[in-house]
Amino acid sequence: MKKILIYFSILIFICFAIPVIFTTSFEKRTSSAEVLTSDGNVVEDKEANDISPNAILESTYDYKDYDTIQLLHQDTGKTEELELDTYLYGVVSAEMPVSFEEEALKAQAVVARTYTLYKIVNNDGKHGEADICDDSTCCQAWISKENRFARWEENEQEENWKKIVNAVNSTQGKIITYQGKPINAFFHSNSGGETEAPIEVWGGSGYPYLQSVSTAGEDAYSQYSSEAEFTEEEFVEKIKEVHSDFEINWKEDNCIEVTEYTEGNRVKTIKIGNLELSGVEVRTIFGLRSANFKVTREGGKIKFEVTGYGHGVGMSQTGADSLAKQGKNYEDIIHHFYTDVEITDM
Q: Would residue 282 count as lying in a domain?
């Protein structure tokens, strides 16, 4: 009887002790984190809620075939090899204000990664041996860490850089796909409240995942509205630089008249004197921020009142920040601007 009681006591002890041992071991493994601090030191085995606020999430993703990119610097003509996410730090910090919400910066990181992969996979040889260039009018903007720091206040540099790096590293490997392939992830500064289908900007057949969508809150940003004014002489001169046969009779009330608008409320075609031009071409001729404009004439001057900034296709950056302020995460933002897509792990 005594032996039975001893064996029974041991059995009870084992039943209680084993779960405690394994739970403690599991918690130690799952709550540990490896992070890179702003001074470059790796911090290991720290509880998640004990990680220093100055810590930068470590980049550990294995991109395999896409671990590096060849970047062409347009100003020097030289090509530089960079790790993919290191390259994206320079893109995100060049393309989006660091003051924007973290979820907007994450969305920009995923969009930039997708755009980069699309350019690599669909390389047309335009940049020789390089995959992509650092000219925003051709590919997407990029800036080195050193040059980025030079434009920030010294007391904000490390904190700003941490925010950029974490936006990229926390979305490692994430790209946007349509029917299993990376999309041509266009983006721009401010849509003026309504994005544009690419067929309205560049012609062609367009992309099914790039449709016109509305975004509230973009009027709160400085990029939303602008003006450009020209004398009649300046106006004529600028058009004649492109169309030497241009003529206009200022006495006619309808000598400048919009004849058609796009789905995104931009000027599709406009009659100016003896010419019928696209809104995109007029934007280029007069250096306007957008093809969403109104034209007025008064006192021998022509004024453009412009809404939005950029071509209007794909993700609006101020729209992304506005959505983030409304509580949307980066995945919500991406699905808002790109239709019927998936966020995929490379």
A: yes
Task: Kindly state whether residues 204 and 274 are assigned to the same domain.
Answer: yes
pTM equals 0.82
Task: Give domain status of residue 277, yes or no.
Answer: yes
235 token code pair: 């106006």
- C-alpha 188/C-alpha 136 separation (Å) is 10
Q: Which domain holds residue 302?
A: 189-313
**Of all helices (H) and strands (E), which one includes residue 11?**
helix 2-31
pLDDT tops 50 at residue 115: yes
Query: Is residue 50 in a domain?
Result: no
* Both structure tokens of 25: 């071991």
Instruction: Give the per-residue pLDDT at 63.
Output: 86
* Buried/exposed 183-220: b ≥16 CB within 10 Å, e otherwise: bbbbbbbbbbbbbbbbebbeeeeebebbbbbebeebee
Q: Answer yes or no: do 151 and 195 share one domain.
A: no
Q: Are 116 and 71 in contact (CB under 8 A)?
A: no
Give the whole-number percent of the chain exceeding pLDDT 90. Answer: 79
At 54, is the pLDDT very low, low, confident or very high (cuts 50, 70, 90)? Answer: low
Encode pLDDT of 187-231 as tens digits.
999 999 999 999 999 988 789 999 999 999 999 999 999 999 999
Q: Do 72 and 160 sit in the same domain of this protein?
A: yes
**C-beta of residue 81 within 8 angstroms of C-beta of residue 68:** yes
Shared domain for 237 and 305, answered yes or no, is: yes
Other Cβ atoms less than 10 A from the Cβ of 345: the count is 8
